[in-house]
Amino acid sequence: MLYQSWLFFALFMVQFACQNKQADTEENKDDSMNTNISEATFAKNGMVSSAHPLASAVGAQILKNGGNAADASVATFFALAVVYPRAGNIAGGGFAVCRLQDGSVTSLDFREKAASAATREMYLDSKGEVVAGLSIRGHLAAGVPGSVDGMIELHKKYGKMSWKDLIQPAVDLAKNGFKLTSDEAKVLNRFQKEFKEHNRFELHLVKNQVWQEGETITYPELAQTLERIRDQGRAGFYEGKTADLIVEEMKAGKGIISAEDLKKYHSVWRQPIIFPYKEYKVITMPPPSGGGIALAQLLMGMENYPFKDWGFNQIQSTHVMIEMERRAYADRSSYLGDPDFVKIPTDMLMNKEYIEKRLESISMTEKTPSDEIKEGKVDLIESVETTHFSVADKDGNAFSITTTLNSYFGCKVMVKGGGFFLNNEMDDFSVKPGVPNQFGIVGDEANAIAANKRMLSSMTPTILEKNGKLFMVVGTPGGSTIITTVYQVITNVIEHGMTLQQAISAKKFHHQWLPDEVIFEENTFDPAVLKQLEQMGHLMKPRKEKIGRVDAILVLPDGSYEGASDPRSEGKAIGY
Ligand code: DON
C-alpha cells in the first residue's frame, strides 16, 4: 500500500526539520531587517508548509507517491487533526483557495454554520446583556462542523489518489502514536484545568504528571472516528456512529446541534475574490471571510503611495498602513457577513475609486480621529488557535487552506467516544451589536446570529500569480490579525524585496479600527520611529504574544519552490 512507507519518511524528515529549526532560531539572526531568520526549504517538485513537521511530512510523502496538491492537502489536513489538535480538526471549519495548473481558480467555503435552533439572543441574559463566556466555552459555543465535508468536496473535485490512502496516515498517527513536540506538550499542560472543567468524562489528555517533550501520545478514539471517515466518507462523520456521538454530547451539555443539522451541512464552492495589485493577481477568500475584501482594500490602496521608497517599518510606511487598516476593519464590521444571508457590496468595497476616496482623509502628519473613520459611505448596493497550510505540486497546482476550531481546542469539549474537540466558532458572530468578541472585534447587523447562518471570519488563505504564473501561496492563523499578517507578508516580499522566510520572520503590527490602538510585537520599530508614530497620535501597544504563524510557499524565478514556516511556531516546510 502506498501509505506504508510514509512513517519512516516522516520520522526522518521530522528529525531533520527539528535540527534545522534549532539552528535557525539560535544562530541566524539578521537585525538589519529587524527579523529573526529561520531557514527556508527549497525544492523543485512540490512543497507542503504546515504548522507541524509530521503533517508536512505526510503531505510531502503523498506528493512523492504521485498525488497532486489536492491529495496532499487532504492528507495534511487529517494529519493536523491528530498531531495539532489545538487547531487541526475534524469538527471545525475553514476555507480553501485553489489555483490549478491551467490557471483556473476557485474557493471552497467549509465554514461552520449556526445550528437550526440558534437564535440572535442565545448568548444574552434576560436583561439583554451578553453572558460572559457562553459563546466561547462549552457545548453551546459550537457551530455545525464543516471540515470533513470540505475535504470530501476538495477530493471529489480535484483529488486523484484514493480517499482511503489519504486518511490512513492520520489513522496511523492516532493509533500508533507520535512524539510530542515541546510546544505541544506545553499546550496540553496549559489546558489541563479547562479539559477537566468542560468535559463530563476524564479525557485521556488529562494527566497527573506533566506532558513531556518526546513523550508518545496516542488518540485511540479519534483513530476509530477517522477509520469511519476513511471507510464511509461523509456518512462516517455526518451520519451513523460519529453523528450519534455528537448529538449525544450535545444533549448531555445543553448544546443545540441536531442530527438533522449534521446531515444537511454542505460546504459551498464560491467565486474567489480576485484583484490586481501591481503586476500581480491576488486570489483570495470571499465572504463569509472578511479577509479577501480587506486584503483587496489594503493592497490596492497601497498603489497610491511610494512604499518601496519609504522602506520597511519606517514612519510614513507604518503610519499609512495603520490608517488603511483602520478603514478596512471599519468597513468589515459594518458590511460583512454570510453572503447567503446579507447583501454584501463587494464590488463597491473593492472599487478603486471607493478605496481612493477612503484614503483621501489620511493626513501624513497625524492620525485621523476615530470618530471620523467609521465605515465608508457605500451608496451602491449591488444585487446582489486556527492553522494554515500551503501546498504546491510539481505541475503548479496550489492550495491555500486555513482551518480552525477558533480558540485552542475550540470550546474545550471533546466528544465522548469520538476523541475529537468541538469548535467554538459561534463567538465569531456579533453576539450583540457593538459588543467585542474574544478578538476584540466588533460587528453589526450583517454578522448577527441566525439559524443556519455562517459566522464572519478573518481567515485569508491567499494565492498570488505573477505574469499568469503561480507566485505565492500564503495564509496564517491569528484571529483578527490574520488579514494584517497576510498583508504584511505580501508587502514585505513585493515592496521590500525580502525573501519569503524573511517576510514571514519579520515582526508584525496590527490595527483593527476598534479598539483604537496599534498592537505590535516587541522590537518591531526603531525607538525613533515609535516615538514619531506616538507623536502622530497613534496609541502604540507592544505585546509579548506573537502575531501570526504563517506557512507559505514562493515560486522562485527558476520555477522551484521556497517553502517557509514561521519561527514563531514549530511548523516546517517540507518539499522534494
Ligand atoms: O475565523 C476566524 O476569523 C477565527 N475563528 C480565527 C481564529 C484564529 O485564528 C485563532 N488562532 N489564532
List of distinct ligands in this structure: 6-diazenyl-5-OXO-L-norleucine
Through-space gap between termini: 21 Å
- What's the overall average pLDDT, rounded? 91
CATH architecture of the domain at 271-383 and 460-552: Orthogonal Bundle
Q: In what range is the share of β-strand residues?
A: 15-25%
Largest sheet: 7 strands, antiparallel
CATH topology of the domain at 271-383 and 460-552: Serum Albumin, Chain A, Domain 1
Structural class: alpha+beta
Explained architecture:
This protein is of the alpha+beta class and about 575 residues long. Helices cover about 35% and strands about 15% of the residues. The chain has a domain at about 270-385 and about 460-550: Serum Albumin, Chain A, Domain 1 (Orthogonal Bundle), CATH 1.10.246.130. It has a seven-stranded antiparallel β-sheet with strand order 3-20-19-15-14-11-10. A seven-stranded antiparallel β-sheet has the order 9-6-5-13-12-4-21. Strands 16-17-18 form a three-stranded mixed β-sheet. Strand 1 (about 30) and strand 2 (about 35) form a beta hairpin. Helix 3 runs antiparallel to helix 4 (about 145-160), helix 12 (about 290-300) packs antiparallel against helix 14 and helix 12 (about 290-300) runs parallel beside helix 17 (about 480-495). The protein starts with 5 loop residues before the first helix and ends with a strand. Residues about 1-35 and about 380-385 have low confidence and may be disordered. The site of 6-diazenyl-5-OXO-L-norleucine (DON) has 13 residues, from loops.
